[in-house]
Amino acid sequence: MSWLGTIRWGALVVAALATVMAQISFIRFLPSPWYHLPLLAILTFFLILIIDGRIGFGFGLAGGLMLEWWSPLVPGAQLLSLVIGMLVVNWLFKAFFTNRSLVSLVLLSGIGVVVSQLFIAAAFSVSYWLNLSWYHWSMDWGYWSALWWQLVFMVLGQVALFLGVRTFSKRMHSVFLMTGRR
Predict the structure, then answer these.
(1) What is the dihedral angle through the alpha carbons of 98, 94, 19, 22, rounded to the nearest 10 degrees?
(2) Neighbours of 124 (CB within 10 A)
(3) Residue 103, SS3?
(4) Which of 82, 133, 136, 143 is the most exposed place for a label (fewest CB within 10 A)?
């Protein structure tokens, strides 16, 4: 790897650290429902689906590892849930979607959040049943409300990022031929 590639990956790790710090030190203490904002997941899925898969996976892995340090979950659950969400989203994108549109971005990001949260719920349940955790996890109203708000914020975040990139970049413009009047 060249020194430029090393600098790029270093900048990616610093960006992931800044995202996790914002998630932990700022977003977590916002009033309800704003503390459900999944900032790391929004940026990770956006990078995977719109910018580049390798960059998105690197960002997600770095952010997931850093999020593990402050997570009250079973060790590895936060990182594994994000990795499983990234793998499912990447597989669905490669297998069933042909373009990088707003609809596919929102749909796949929503699927990624649901898969990640269901994995965390399963990890909590298994750890409680095996007496590895004292916290009893239940899928009550609070769980479904949190999942709902994460999906709402995921949609809003992906729309904002998509429109921002489309406005300030030539990356997202359509490739259809425009014909004039005859």
Answers:
(1) 70
(2) 21
(3) helix
(4) 136
Q: Side chain identity at 20, as an amino acid letter?
A: V
- Helix 102-129 and helix 141-168: axis angle, to 10°? 150
Backbone φ, ψ for residue 173 (5° rounding): -80, 150
Residues of the chain with confidence (pLDDT) below 70:
1, 132-138, 171-182
Question: 143 is written with which tokens?
Answer: 């769980």
Amino acid at 66: M
Torsion angle (degrees, nearest 10) of CA 13, 14, 17, 21: -170
Query: What's the token pair of residue 92?
Result: 């669905």
Other beta carbons within 10 angstroms of residue 144's beta carbon come to 11
Q: Is 173 exposed, middle or buried (0-12, 13-18, 19+ CB in 10 A)?
A: exposed
User: How does pLDDT run across 96-138, given as a tens digit for each residue?
Assistant: 887 788 888 999 999 999 999 888 888 877 777 777 666 666 6
Size (the chain), residues: 182
Amino acid letter, residue 156: L
